[in-house]
Structures are given as C-alpha cells and as structure tokens.
Amino acid sequence: MMKLVDQVVRSFKVAKVFRENTDKINSIDFSPTGETLISCSEDDQIVIYDCEKGTQMITVNSKKYGVDLIHFTHAKNTAIHSSTKVDDTIRYLSLHDNKYIRYFPGHTKKVVTLCLSPVEDTFLSGSLDKTLRLWDLRSPNCQGLMHLSGRPVAAYDPEGLIFAAGVNSESIKLYDLRSFDKGPFVTFKLNQEKECDWTGLKFSRDGKTMLISTNGSIIRLVDAYHGTPLQTFTGHLNNKGIPIEASFSPDSQYIFSGSTDGRVHVWNADTGYKVCVLNGDHPAPIQCVQFNPKYMLLASACTNMAFWLPTIDDV
C-alpha cells in the first residue's frame, strides 16, 4: 500500500456507487483481509461486496428480525448482528446459505454496541439496558455480565487482551479480559457530553489512542494509556442526532467521518487539523465510513454505498 499523506487523501474520488438499498445503511464492516465488505440496512438487507473487483457479491434478507451492527466473524462467510425487530437477541449467521447458527439472548433493550475480538471467537455487546455482556461464539450462554451506570460503548484493543467500555458519555473503563469479573483496572473520567451521547468507541491500530464518536457534531480522541483528551474534531454536520461513525486510517494518522450534508470529513489525528472535505454526491446523510485495512480504499454509506480510490499514484 502506498503511504497516506495529505496530498493522497485529498485526491480520493468516488470510483463506484452501489444502489442496492432502499433505506439507509446503518452498519458496515471490512473483513480482516480487506477483500470483502459487509453492510446492513434499515431495509433489512445484508449486502456483501468484493473490494478487489468492486462488485456486489451476495444479498441476504433479514426481514423477520431486522439487522444492525453487523460484523464479520473469523470463520469464512459468517457474521454476527443485532436485531431491530422481535427482540434484542444477537444472531450468528451463515451467509452462504442464509441460516442462523446460534442465538445469543439476554439483553432486554436495544443493543447499541457490538464488537468482535481481533484474536479469538469472543465478542462484546452493550445495550440500553445498561449492561455489557461477553460472549463466546460457540455458546449461547453469556460468559460475563457487567452492570453499568448508563449507556455503553465498547471496543477491544488491537491485541485482544483488554477491552474498553465507555459509560454514560463521561467515563472510559479498561478491563483485562482474563480478570474482567474483578472490575476495571483503570477508569478515565472525562467531561460529560452535554449536547450528545457517545455512540462509538475504537482503538487505533497502534493501540495508542481511542476514538469516540457521537450522535452530535463532535468526535473525541483520547490517549489510551492515560485517558488524556488529545483532540476534538468538529466542523462536520450532524443535525439529525444520528450515530455518525468516525474511523481511523490503518496507519492511525487520519480520522474520517460522515456528515449529514453527505460529505466525508478528514482530519489529521496528531494535529487535529482538517485535511479536507470529500464530496462524493451522497444524496443523504453519511452514517458509515471506514477505511479498508489492507487496500487503498475508503467506503462511505448513506442509502447508497460508495467506494473511493485515490486519483494520484504517488507523491
């Protein structure tokens, strides 16, 4: 992969637009190899794309339970997702034959955070029922339960040794996976958000920082070791209260975010400087933005899915 520098980032243009969905895409996830991308939408469709060929591969319907917070698992052609209908069970899906492998019941309110361990078949879920649950894909029974004081967001660190729980839009608790039942080994207290809620939490790939996304027009970057606020990214629009995703570039140097004005905003993670605003003619708010972990490809989604490529070869 060529190096990401400001000039390359500013050169990104939409190379392909997919119009498979009739309602907004609410979640996307690249496979660890970067070869495929999975999305789910409020029209209850799951779509898988081939990132090398720039084509749509599979469409699967989840009409009965709805679908949100979709993630590839480590096994080929499988994914987990939360439900938007019937109940708040998490479901483990075989994509090639559209059959459920296992259900994970337990949450009593909407699941708002779901993340898969980068190294093993475990995952975390958090809900508006103010609990965080730890699961093993091989068992329908919850492996661990944490009662929290408010709405959670959660993320594994890149090594899969610890996980972070953002609670009540004001504190981040770090847990050791081998002894999570003893409680967090450190808690970082931040100023509570007054205008919005925390809706997403991600570690940078180098493990040094954590990115907090919100349902307002603010994104925060904090030091993963000390909880120190490093940057606040603003200037993107979110006047609809939607959980707009913010993402790192694979080298942890850039932050990408969607916007309700249908554009992608990019900042330098170290300086907080706005690098550019990319206009790809999205007709609706962009809720999802992620950078491919292996290829020089950016994906953004409103109702449409857009694949972006740099238009200069090198600098």
TrEMBL record:
Start-end of each WD repeat: 18-59, 104-139, 247-277
Biological process annotations from GO: DNA-templated transcription termination; negative regulation of DNA-templated transcription, elongation; nuclear RNA surveillance
GO molecular function: chromatin binding
InterPro entries: Swd2/WDR82 (IPR037867), WD40/YVTN_repeat-like_dom_sf (IPR015943), WD40_PAC1 (IPR020472), WD40_repeat_CS (IPR019775), WD40_repeat_dom_sf (IPR036322), WD40_rpt (IPR001680)
One Pfam family it belongs to: WD40
Location of this chain's protein in the cell: Nucleus
Primary location recorded for the protein, binned into one broad class: nucleus
GO cellular component: Set1C/COMPASS complex
UniProt name for this protein: WD repeat-containing protein 82
Organism annotation: Euphydryas editha
